[in-house]
Write a structure and sequence with these properties.
By secondary structure, the protein is of the alpha/beta class. Helices cover 38% and strands 12% of the residues. The protein has 21 helices and 14 strands. The strands form 3 sheets. It has an 8-stranded mixed beta sheet with strand order 7-8-12-11-10-9-13-14. Strands 2-1-3-4 form a 4-stranded parallel beta sheet, sandwiched between helices. Strands 5-6 form a two-stranded antiparallel sheet. Helix 3 (50-64) packs across helix 10 (224-241). The longest helix has 19 residues, at 90-108. The chain is globular. The relative contact order is 0.11. The chain binds (2R)-2,3-dihydroxy-3-methylbutanoic acid and magnesium ion. Magnesium ion (MG) is lined by residues 78, 120, 197, 270, 444, 470.
């Protein structure tokens, strides 16, 4: 047992002494020691219920024959950190979460780990820790929020509130209507109710095979999640007995399949960043071009908010992620149904009883929204190392967009430009120096994309940035443009009025300026000094790599 390192032999008498002080009994020393990696925190609705949740996890571990030891990671609420300096900490928090979990797991030699994530950076941070430490692991997330409903019966999500701000500011909504949305959009604990980043990652974990069927869609308030916990605890003990580790489950094929699910559900663009980071931790070489290959062979089966009004709860009632995975498994050559998972069964065995119960929420290949996936990687002279778009949340009539650049050196300036009416139909808003190094921290930009959508301009204005988006962002919004401006990427060379062409079919993003002129501009480009000079963000900016490699830290 790994934990023998801290409990076996005469020289571990002091260690045992401390363990007894924590409540461990002599007879417990032969049982597996399980780290319960929790992420309870009061300020995130997706995590506020996790203190009680972890109590259930600990009971379940004891019932399954293990000894639980709970510890916590931090978390950032992206919605609350949105639109101000706080958002710079969001993506960097992912590495702190991975590092803190690694620290506790390796310092104490746990035999297995039960992870409890939920919101945006917590899930990928914990997944990174799981493949990095490679100790037998299972995941049960906190679960999605119930969908909101306005007093007039309209389905609501957090996206409705962000877009409501733009609608109110442009005179398309009254103050009373906005207040009604604000009060009703987030009715319970849980991760925000659409196919935003948290729910994208929590659904992806079902496909990765590290979480049980139901993990992505069973709402946080449902008692059935407790059964998920009890089942997961038993599986974890089996994984320890059979020595099945995260890297036995997460292989290159697994990463392919995770992206396939992303394509079928129109996941958040952030999943690209996170899944690449997980691949990196697992020492899997993963090229962005591979994602487009998967996109081309995977139909878009389920449109969820912000691409439609359906919530995660609707997906659950329609058969859940299992029904979508089953569809994908039964298509020729789309995923790898024989992969092993934490249940000890194959991916296909896990889902073979599932059924799509609503043919609009979960479609078949024949009735799919499109024969290609809901996410796309664009390449071109403006993004030699790629950019990402949630193409599934673009009006389906838009196949390409040509517009003139209106350039902002920060998100704040862009937001002012959108709110003041400076940004108009036909513009491509360029927001730069917001990448992993430039931001620093690659802030998520729901405020500007929602300001555009809320004004009804989402089919007439495009937005490109070296920053990133929320899963609730929609419209022709291209993020992760790499290399980023702070590294001298071509996005730094765009001038106001330059023509930019975006082709969603060819998957291209081009600046229609001659190479000669660009070369001239490049000569005059001056690398800006880092915006933040001390603390974690300064250290982060020094070590972080480009978005096309997951924005991981490298020495
Ligand atoms: C606040 C949101 C909607 O959760 C966002 O952070 C996302 O990435 O989806
Ligand atoms: Mg987010």
């Amino acid at each position: 047992m790994r934990s023998d390192m801290i409990k076996k032999g005469v020289d571990r008498a002091p260690h045992r002494s401390l363990l007894y002080a924590t409540g461990v009994k002599l007879k417990d020393l032969d049982k597996p020691f399980i780290g319960v990696c929790n992420s309870y925190i009061d300020i995130i609705p997706g995590h506020m219920h996790l203190r009680q949740f972890a109590d259930v996890v600990k009971d379940a571990i004891r019932a399954a024959g293990g000894i639980p030891f709970e510890f916590n990671t931090i978390g950032v609420d992206d919605g609350i950190a949105m639109g101000h300096i706080g958002m710079r900490y969001s993506l960097p928090s992912r590495e702190l979460i991975a590092d803190s979990a690694e620290t506790v797991i390796n310092a104490h030699w746990f035999d297995g780990v039960f992870y409890i994530p939920n919101c945006d950076k917590i899930t990928p941070g914990m997944l990174m820790a799981a493949v990095r430490t490679n100790v037998p692991s299972v995941f049960v997330s906190g679960g999605p929020m119930e969908a909101g409903v306005s007093s007039t019966g309209q389905p609501l999500s957090l996206a409705s509130v962000f877009e409501g701000v733009g609608a109110y500011q442009s005179g398309r909504m009254t103050q009373e209507e906005l207040l009604d949305i604000e009060k009703n959009a987030c009715p319970t604990c849980g991760s925000c109710s659409g196919m935003f980043t948290a729910n994208s990652m929590n659904s992806l974990m079902e496909m990765l095979g590290v979480a049980l069927p139901g993990n992505g869609t069973l709402v946080a308030t449902s008692k059935e999640r407790h059964q998920l916990i009890y089942d997961a605890a038993e599986h974890l003990i089996d994984l320890i007995k059979n020595d099945i580790k995260p890297r036995d489950i997460i292989t290159k094929e697994t990463i392919d399949d995770a992206f396939a699910l992303d394509m079928a559900m129109g996941g958040s663009t952030n999943t690209v960043l996170h899944t690449l980071a997980i691949a990196h931790e697992a020492e899997i070489d993963y090229d962005l071009n591979r994602i487009n290959e998967i996109a081309k062979r995977t139909p878009y089966l389920s449109k969820i908010s912000p691409a439609s009004n359906y919530s995660m709860q609707d997906v659950h009632n329609a058969g859940g992620v299992s029904a979508i995975i089953k569809e994908l498994c039964e298509m020729e050559g789309v995923v790898h149904p024989e992969r092993i998972t934490v249940t000890g069964k194959t991916l296909y065995e896990n889902v073979k009883e599932a059924q799509a119960l609503n043919s609009d929420v979960i479609r078949s290949k024949e009735t799919a929204h499109s024969q290609v996936g809901g996410l796309s990687i664009l390449f071109g002279n403006l993004a030699p190392d790629g950019g990402v778009i949630k193409v599934g949340a673009v009006d389906p009539n838009i196949k390409s967009f040509v517009g003139s650049a209106i350039v902002y050196e920060s998100q704040d300036d862009a937001l002012k430009g959108i709110e003041s009416g400076e940004v108009q139909a036909g513009h491509v808003v360029v927001i730069r120096y917001e990448g992993p190094k430039g931001g620093p921290g690659m802030p998520e930009m729901l405020a500007p994309t929602a300001a555009i959508a809320g004004r009804g301009l989402d089919t007439q204005v495009a937005l490109i940035t070296d920053g990133r988006f929320s899963g609730a962002s929609r419209g022709v919004s291209i993020g992760h443009v790499s290399p980023e401006a702070a590294e001298g990427g071509p996005i730094a060379l765009v001038h106001d009025g330059d023509l930019i062409t975006i082709n969603l079919v060819e998957r291209t993003l081009c600046l229609e300026v001659s190479e000669k002129i660009l070369e001239e501009r490049r000569k005059h480009w001056i690398k800006p000094s880092p915006k933040i000079q001390k603390g974690y963000l300064a250290r982060y900016a020094k070590l972080v790599t480009s978005a096309n490699t997951g924005g991981v830290l490298k020495i």
